[in-house]
Amino acid sequence: MKITEVTARDIRFPTSLELHGSDAVHKNPDYSAMYVTIKTDSPGGREGYGLTFTIGRGNEIVMGAAQAYGKMLVGMSVEDIFNDFGSIWRQLAHEEQLRWLGPEKGVIHLALAAIINALWDLWARIEEKPVWRLLSDMSPEKLVSTVDFSYLSDALTKEEALEILKKNAPTKEERIKKLFLEGYPAYTTSAGWLGYTDKQIEDLCNKYLSAGWTRFKMKVGNDLDDDRRRAAIIRKTIGPDRFLAMDSNQRWDVPEAIEYMKGLAEFKPVWIEEPTSPDDVLGHAAISKALAPYGISVATGEHCQNRVIFKQFMQAQGFQYCQIDSCRVGGLNEIIAILLMAAKFGVPVCPHAGGVGLCEYVQHISMFDYICVSASLENRVTEFADHLHEHFVHPVVATNGSYKVPMAPGYSAEMKSQSLEEYEFPDGAVWRRLISEGRFKV
Amino acid sequence: MKITEVTARDIRFPTSLELHGSDAVHKNPDYSAMYVTIKTDSPGGREGYGLTFTIGRGNEIVMGAAQAYGKMLVGMSVEDIFNDFGSIWRQLAHEEQLRWLGPEKGVIHLALAAIINALWDLWARIEEKPVWRLLSDMSPEKLVSTVDFSYLSDALTKEEALEILKKNAPTKEERIKKLFLEGYPAYTTSAGWLGYTDKQIEDLCNKYLSAGWTRFKMKVGNDLDDDRRRAAIIRKTIGPDRFLAMDSNQRWDVPEAIEYMKGLAEFKPVWIEEPTSPDDVLGHAAISKALAPYGISVATGEHCQNRVIFKQFMQAQGFQYCQIDSCRVGGLNEIIAILLMAAKFGVPVCPHAGGVGLCEYVQHISMFDYICVSASLENRVTEFADHLHEHFVHPVVATNGSYKVPMAPGYSAEMKSQSLEEYEFPDGAVWRRLISEGRFKV
After folding, report:
1. Cα A408 to chain center, whole Å?
2. Domain residues for B30?
């Protein structure tokens, strides 16, 4: 089976009109997907679907990068790719000229994620399994063959990775059973966006509570008094002991983060997420140390560019919760490397989700992590945000505060063709209408 | 004066045909420039020129990003920009939707560098000064107003920056005089590319020696025996005491870097440059510590994405030589921030150059650093590579091992219109010929 074509499309949703997704730094996001389709010459015309998430402008830049990677895949044998996926990943991530634009970060790495995730989708569809199952059925040796271990040997060797996987292999069916019974624990971000009124926040907390959700996250960082008022509302509504996390989306300098969070400590946040620049490993370590006496942990990762940054966060104890993003690092292969490091360092992985399709992706990652890598649910909780799922062919199902096990073959990122047509930017019907009404400028 | 248009062009030179610029990681680079022109409504039609350097494929992706930033500038008043350049820089670098693609890294930051550098070029042309002089004539207060200090306050405050600049202000004319007399110290990379034969290396060392060059750099990292043979040739040719640096272009893991360099210690390299991933601050710190007893320092920076990474390199003693790149971080404003931090931490800044136009840029940076920020030449030496200067209207002049003071107004990155036309990719005459001859595929 050979790859015959790779297409990339610019799909955007006008979420800025409603302030869903608003935080201290991203005030008017238009949740978007750079959507990749990998086509093959298989008799049934089998395809793989992948996406990367952005928040609007610049989605076309990522599309350009995906087209550059796509060219490299055309003509390759699918079997050759999956027989040595770790090396192929490296070939793409370190393409001799493109790597200058990173290396392994920013636009080219976001684009690589969509391409790599589409390959995993294709692989899982060929095997007729959901991605979590494809991974869980692999031998430890096969799993590590998908990983590029370069730059990691001072923290994790291939041999140590194998050891982790082998230790957990005999008991994995027990954990699969548990997941089918109980799902994977989740928290909701949908009640705490900055753009919401106090009344909206209270109503949403109550709505999620009565639907069985027990873990919440709120956005903070613009104004301490305002955040204290909002935190008090949420704490009062959800009760004194339920899980509450806070997220400032990179808003502060290091000393500022420490002072600001002391002012929110009485509301007992489990973690402060993205307190400062996502590049600042040492800054996060200083914040972690300063806030530990207040019972507040540090979480970050959704903007962390690759396995080398995550390695340092673990070495320097820069975070206590590792929040990988399914599209920020170079797709599932690199995520597996990070999960393995986290297992070695004993750091719980609580993936970032929301956006477009991120919940669809991370359900596979968290379940695989539990089944094969961490083998633990302690302190693990995966983000859930309840929007835009209606555009997916097999949308995520999260009820009663947990993700249900996805069963459709693939990586769950296939979007409905009607959605793709309507929301393609700038020529889809929705955008043509908004632009003609003067509500958006191109 | 208002900005009326911002254009971006994809200019590439087919350097891969001759293996200039070949190293352990970038084996076949086509040195390229994403070239920006900022047009204004001034009566004389004043323009600013800027570029960012890439090594070929992907230059078009950076062009897409520059167009996105360019749109934001059209209609803005030039005076407003330069009155509050630090804030404008931040507005661009943290544009609410584009920032998701970084933040402050990779493609969007490379593109921002070209845009920002073109603004500095425009400013200097309006003032009819070379950029180094424009900077040197500014008050300390004006200089710090061009800098965005966000994420830096745990390492350098605006007040500390002011103090550094004020301390040096009274003596700056002495240093300007010295620069006119002696130039700024440089080393050459042009003798030590991996793709060259032993004979070529020896001949080039002799050629540069007889032209007055005393400092050399060689590429290493593919094969220790090969590197030992090449190092022996260079050491023998230049003599036992002259400056020799080595550069492995991110080739190794941390433990590998340490072992490999022990095998080259007898050739007395001043530094090993880019021993591992440019993202690995802690890895560089470990290498620095392990190689110190061998008298080898660590240098890095050309692939370091922004001031937050440089901050950590200084905090963790990850390098002993700071090699900023004039186009990798977000242009001159961010470079000023890094120079100020380096002065505080006592780290010499030895800019990366070569490529296309980087030597033209860094001469301004190094001279400004000496005049106003570090006020020292101790352990300072700026890279020089002798290629592609013929495409510039005011090419750099480096003779006798030092950069001469540039006198033309602007930031020296204006390219000849004939070069722009011939080397525009893929439709310039040079590329049309190479493509029609089958020597390049688009």
Report:
1. 20
2. 2-128+417-437
* Closest-CA residue to B333 (of B110, B85, B77, B140): B85
Q: Is A119 on the interface with B (CB under 8 A)?
A: no
ipTM, two decimals: 0.97
The contacts of residue A255 (CB under 8 Å, 6+ apart) are B153, B154
Region A116-134: what's the mean pLDDT? 98
- Residues A206, A89 share a domain: no
Is A409 a member of any domain? no
Name the closest residue on chain B to residue A312, using Cα atoms.
B282
Q: What are phi and psi of A37, to 5 degrees?
A: -120, 125
CA distances from A304 to A176, A264, B64, B102 (A): 29, 25, 23, 9
Residue contact A256–B153, C-beta within 8 A:
yes
> Are A270 and A300 members of one domain?
yes
Range with the poorest average pLDDT among A181-195, B60-74, B335-349:
A181-195
Q: What is the CATH number of the domain that holds B427?
A: 3.30.390.10
Residue B406 DSSP symbol: P
What pTM was computed for the model? Answer: 0.97
From chain B, the residues in CB contact with A279 under 8 A are 104-105, 305-306, 308-309, 312
Q: Is B219 a catalytic residue?
A: yes
Strand pairing category for A402-403 and A398-399: antiparallel
- Whether a cis peptide bond, with omega within 30° of 0, leads into B170 is no
Main-chain dihedrals φ then ψ at residue B159, nearest 5 degrees: -65, -40
Contacts of A315 in chain B (CB under 8 A): 282
Concerning whether B311 is annotated as a catalytic residue, the answer is no
Q: Do B105 and A108 touch (CB under 8 A)?
A: no
Q: Which residue of A has its CA nearest to B355?
A: A100
Q: Is residue B138 part of a domain?
A: no
Cβ–Cβ < 8 Å for B213, A110? no
Residues B399 and B421 in one domain: no
Which of A64, A8, A12, A18 lies closest to A435 in space, CA to CA? Answer: A12
Bridging pattern class, strands B398-399 and B402-403: antiparallel
The CA distance from A177 to A206, in Å, is 31
Contact B29 A65 (CB under 8 A): no
Does residue B32 sit within a domain? Answer: yes
CB contact under 8 A, B279 and A95: no
Q: Print burial letters for B56-72: b (CB count within 10 Å at least 16), e (below 16).
A: bbbbbbbbbbbbbbbeb
Residues of A identified as active-site: 219, 352
Token reading at B413: 């990155």
The CA distance from B202 to B158, in Å, is 49
> Per residue in B198-225, pLDDT tens?
999 999 999 999 999 999 999 999 999 9
With a cut of 80, say whether residue B123 has pLDDT above it: yes
Say which of B109, B129, B284, B352 is annotated catalytic.
B352
Do A306 and A376 sit in the same domain of this protein?
yes
Q: Residue A190: pLDDT above 90?
A: no
Within this chain, do residues A211 and A334 fall inside the same structural domain, yes or no? yes
What's the number of domains chain A is made of?
Answer: 2
| Contact criterion met (CB < 8 Å) for B277 and A151 | yes
Residue A315 in any domain: the answer is yes
Question: Within this chain, do residues A174 and A118 fall inside the same structural domain, yes or no?
Answer: no
Q: Do B385 and B154 touch, CB atoms closer than 8 A?
A: no
Is there a single domain that holds both residue B341 and residue B222?
Answer: yes
Average pLDDT, integer, range A223-250 = 97
- Structure tokens belonging to residue B307: 């001031």
Q: What's B207's domain CATH number?
A: 3.20.20.120
What does B8-58 look like in DSSP terms, one character per residue? Answer: EEEEE--GGGTTTT--SS-SS---EEEEEEEEE--TT--EEEEEEEE-STT
**Chain B contact for A158, CB < 8 A?**
no
Angle subtended at Cα A395 by Cα A393 and Cα A397, rounded to the nearest 5 degrees: 155
Residues B312-324 as b/e (b if ≥16 CB within 10 A, e otherwise) read bbbbbbbbbbbbb
**Are A15 and A59 in a shared domain?**
yes
